C-alpha cells in the first residue's frame, strides 16, 4: 500500500515512458485488514498474528512465532500462510510472478528452514507434492526444484541478514515437460536464478506457502512477513518505489548488478533510498533503494516430503530518467521530483 503519492507517481511515469507491458496485480497479501483473512489457509494459526512493527510497507505485517509445539502430522514444525491462485494462473502454459518480504529479528538456527515454497493441492491426483522451495540454514540460502527430481539451482552463504527486510520474488513458467517448465528467482532485486528447467506442472493446481517449515527443534523462532504480491509481470511483485529494506534511508546506494526494468531502471544497491527527489532527472543523479537478503530450501505440505536449502546476494533499486533535459517528459518528471522533495514519505524499514 503506497503511503506517498509522489513515489507512486514516479513509478507510473517511468512505466509509461518505457511503454512497459500492462501489469495485472492478482493478489496483495499486505495484512492491512488487521487480520489474516487475506489468506486461503493458515497452517498452525496459533503461531500467526498481525503486528504494527516492524513493517515493510503500510501499517501492518504478519508475524510467525514457531515453537516445538507447532507440530504437523508429518513430524515437522510449521507455521505458515497459504495463497492459492486461481487455477488458470498455475495451469499448463501459464506464467505467474509472486513475491513477498521477510524480516528475521535474529538468525535462524543451522537446522533446515523452508520459508517459501510451491506445492500441488491434490485436486486431481489426490497427492500433495512440493514443486520447489527456498530454504535458510543459519545465514545460508538455497533454491531447489523437486520435479522430475530434486535439484539445487542456487545457494549462497552469509546472505540472510537479521534485522533487515529481504525480498524474494519468483517467476514460474508452468509446464509438465521439464524442458519447457522454467523458474526465475530474485533476491533483494538481484536475479539469482535464470530459466532453471524443471517440471512445474503435474496436473494439479498449485499454491504457495511462506512462513517457517523446519525440523522439530526446541527453540522459539520468529519471522515477520509483508507485502506479498502475485501478478503477471515482474513489476507487480518487485515494485521499484518500495524495493529494499532494513535501516534508515541513506545518502544513496551503489548501482551495480541487478535487474533491468522499465526505462532502463536498474535494481541494485545498499540499504535505504537516496536523498534528493531531484535526482529523478537523468543529469541530476540517480536515486537508489536497496538492501541485502537470502533464500533457502524447505519441506513439504500436508502429507508431503521435506527438503531444505541455501542463500543469495545483495541488491536494491536505482532509477534513471530516460530524458536528460527538462523538456517534454523531462519536465513532467521534474515536477514529480519537486513533489518528492516537499512530500516524501519516510522509507526507513526497521
SSE blueprint and pairings:
Elements: H1 5-18, E1 25-29, E2 41-43, E3 48-51, E4 61-66, E5 77-83, E6 95-103, E7 113-120, E8 130-137, E9 140-145, E10 151-156, E11 165-173, E12 182-187, E13 190-197, E14 206-214, E15 221-231, H2 234-237, E16 272-273, E17 288-292, E18 314-318, H3 329-342
Antiparallel strand pairs: 1-15, 2-5, 3-4, 4-15, 5-14, 6-11, 6-15, 7-8, 7-14, 8-9, 9-10, 11-12, 12-13, 16-17, 17-18
Helix pairs in contact: 1-3
Write structural notes for this entry.
With about 350 residues, the protein is mainly beta. It has one domain: Jelly Rolls (Sandwich), CATH 2.60.120.200. It contains three helices and 18 strands. Strands 1, 3, 4, 6, 11, 12, 13 and 15 form an eight-stranded antiparallel beta sheet that branches. Strand 12 and strand 13 form a beta hairpin. Helix 1 (about 5-20) runs antiparallel to helix 3 (about 330-340). The longest helix is centred in the first third of the chain and has 14 residues, at about 5-20. The chain starts with a helix and ends in an 8-residue tail after the last helix.
Brief summary:
The chain has 350 residues and is mainly β.
Amino acid at each position: 500500500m503506497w503511503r506517498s503519492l509522489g513515489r507512486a507517481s514516479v513509478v507510473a511515469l517511468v512505466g509509461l515512458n518505457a511503454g512497459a507491458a500492462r501489469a495485472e496485480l492478482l493478489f496483495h497479501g499486505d495484512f492491512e485488514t488487521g487480520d489474516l483473512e487475506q489468506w486461503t489457509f493458515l497452517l498452525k494459526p496459533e503461531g500467526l498474528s498481525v503486528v504494527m512493527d516492524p513493517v515493510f510497507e503500510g501499517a501492518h505485517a504478519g508475524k510467525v512465532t514457531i515453537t516445538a509445539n507447532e507440530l504437523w502430522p508429518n513430524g515437522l514444525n510449521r507455521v505458515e500462510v497459504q495463497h492459492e491462485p486461481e487455477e488458470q494462473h498455475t495451469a499448463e502454459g501459464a506464467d505467474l510472478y509472486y513475491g513477498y518480504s521477510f524480516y528475521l529479528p535474529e538468525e535462524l538456527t543451522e537446522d533446515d528452514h523452508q520459508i517459501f515454497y510451491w506445492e500441488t493441492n491434490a485436486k486431481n491426483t489426490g497427492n500433495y507434492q512440493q514443486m520447489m522451495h527456498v530454504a535458510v540454514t543459519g545465514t545460508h540460502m538455497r533454491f531447489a526444484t523437486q520435479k522430475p527430481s530434486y535439484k539445487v539451482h542456487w545457494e549462497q552463504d552469509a546472505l540472510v541478514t537479521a534485522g533487515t527486510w529481504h525480498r524474494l520474488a519468483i517467476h514460474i513458467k508452468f509446464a509438465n515437460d521439464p524442458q519447457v517448465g522454467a523458474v526465475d528467482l530474485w533476491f533483494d532485486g538481484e536475479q539469482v536464478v535464470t530459466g532453471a528447467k524443471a517440471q512445474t506442472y503435474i496436473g494439479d493446481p498449485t499454491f504457495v506457502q511462506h512462513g517457517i517449515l523446519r525440523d522439530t527443534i526446541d527453540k522459539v523462532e520468529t519471522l515477520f512477513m509483508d507485502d506479498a504480491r502475485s501478478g503477471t509481470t515482474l513489476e507487480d511483485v518487485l515494485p521499484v518505489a518500495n524495493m529494499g529494506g532494513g535501516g534508515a534511508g541513506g545518502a544513496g546506494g551503489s548501482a551495480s548488478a541487478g535487474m533491468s526494468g522499465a526505462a532502463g531502471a536498474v535494481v541494485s544497491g545498499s540499504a535505504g533510498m537516496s536523498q534528493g527527489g531531484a535526482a529523478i532527472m537523468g543529469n541530476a543523479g540517480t536515486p537508489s533503494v536497496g538492501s541485502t537478503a537470502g533464500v533457502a530450501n524447505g519441506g513439504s505440505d500436508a502429507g508431503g516430503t521435506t527438503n531444505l536449502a541455501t542463500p543469495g546476494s545483495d541488491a536494491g533499486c536505482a532509477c534513471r530518467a530516460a530524458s536528460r533535459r527538462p523538456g517534454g517528459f523531462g519536465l513532467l518528471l521534474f515536477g514529480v521530483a519537486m513533489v518528492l522533495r516537499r512530500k516524501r514519505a519516510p522509507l526507513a524499514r526497521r
